[in-house]
Amino acid sequence: MRVILIPIVALGLLAGACSTGGASGAGNPASIRVVAAFFPVQQAAEEVGGPLLDVTNLTAPGVEPHDLELTPDQVVDISTADVVFYLGSGFQPAVQDAIGDAQGETVDLLKGMPTVRPPAGSEEGLAADPHVWLDPVLYQRMVGEVVAGLVRADPPDAETFRSNGEAFEARVAGLDRAYRAGLATCRRRVIVTNHAAFGYLASRYGLTQQSISGLSPDAEPNARRLAELRTLVERDGVTTIFTEDAVSPEVAQTLAQEAGVQTAVLHTLEALTPEEVAAGDDYVSLMRENLTTLERALDCS
Ligand SMILES: [Zn+2]
Questions:
Q1: Does residue 12 have a pLDDT over 50?
Q2: Could you give the CA distance from residue 12 to residue 64 in angstroms, rounded to a whole number?
Q3: CA 198 / ligand 1 centre spacing (Å)
Q4: 244 CA to centre of ligand 1 in angstroms
Q5: Would you place residue 28 in the very low, low, confident or very high pLDDT band (cuts 50, 70, 90)?
Q6: Residues 198, 269: contact at Cβ < 8 Å?
Q7: Distance (Å) from CA 35 to ligand 1 centroid
């Protein structure tokens, strides 16, 4: 019996392997296992791959992704995924470490991007400002890299990935046009943010970012920095201190109170809150909300 059974089992395994190998088999959706390091990458992969992919996001809703710690299961997910999309340059060192054991395709989405180096003396372990996704122009490039990575992992579905990618890039290009128009004429151009997540966005649309903490939200602001910002808020007539979703707004609120101005949330999109997920929010809707918030705070017309 055994002698007969073994080839049958082997055949079964082979058949299984074949049907999961190419996602073009219409009867076998979600056969490409993708690990995305955090929300903007997750959405890009889902837009490009749709039902052909099974996407896992390493950063849960409401969790701040800088210096993310991985569970043992997530380390296994990274090592066994067909494709892993992440941002290098020290944004999530634990993810970078786990990438060493990955058997599938791995794509560092900061590679090839026109990134800016952290300010001199910064001790946050970053080789580059990672926040490229907040600039819709650079985010389009990220989407293009996601398309390229998926095409390498699954050539038979290249056409689907490319056309989905183009459709999503077109929506993001629409955001860029809205930002250009919306922020063209404003009374003020200084934005005071919680951490320095909006550098690429600011330079794209001619704004100046001043942040309470550095490129990472956990870098503690010191008393001197807060005093500088109070002076700047008064001098430049800043009306709003921006807080963010996944980080305590306490310091920003104190600064706003002392300076007699208001606070408003500017989404970093590093992770959606559980409420935003439930409301069906995504990259495009939250970026549009950010634009409205900026237009109001900067008195744009
Ligand atoms: Zn950040």
A1: no
A2: 43
A3: 9
A4: 10
A5: low
A6: no
A7: 20
Residue 144 class from Cβ within 10 Å (0-12 exposed, 13-18 middle, 19+ buried)? middle
Distance 155 CA to ligand 1 centre (A): 33
- 24 CA distance to ligand 1 middle (Å): 37
C-alpha 65 to ligand 1 mean position (Å): 8
Question: Which strands, in side-by-side order, build the sheet including 208-211?
Answer: 208-211, 190-193, 240-243, 262-265
Lowest mean pLDDT among 19-23, 122-126, 220-224: 19-23
Query: How far apart (Å, rounded) are the C-alpha atoms in residues 248 and 218?
Result: 10
67 contact partners, CB below 8 Å, separation of at least 6: 92, 93, 94, 216, 218
Out of 23-27, 188-192, 243-247, the most confident range is: 188-192
Q: How far is the CA of 19 from the centre of ligand 1 (A)?
A: 40
Res 21 pLDDT > 80:
no
Q: How far is the CA of 100 from the centre of ligand 1 (A)?
A: 24
Residue-level pLDDT at 34: 98
Q: What is the pLDDT of residue 29?
A: 62
**Rounded to the nearest 5°, which phi and psi values hold at 210?**
-125, 125
How far, in Å, from the CA of 156 to the mean position of ligand 1? 36
pLDDT of residue 13: 40
pTM attached to this predicted model: 0.89
User: Cβ(14)–Cβ(24) under 8 Å?
Assistant: no
Ligand 1 centre and the CA of 134: distance in Å? 10
The whole-number average pLDDT for the span 77-91 is 98
Distance of CA 219 from the midpoint of ligand 1 (Å) = 11
Answer whether residue 219 shows pLDDT above 90: no
Tell me, what amino acid is at 148?
A: A
Residue 270 Cα, ligand 1 centroid: separation in angstroms? Answer: 7
Q: Give the pLDDT score at 24.
A: 46
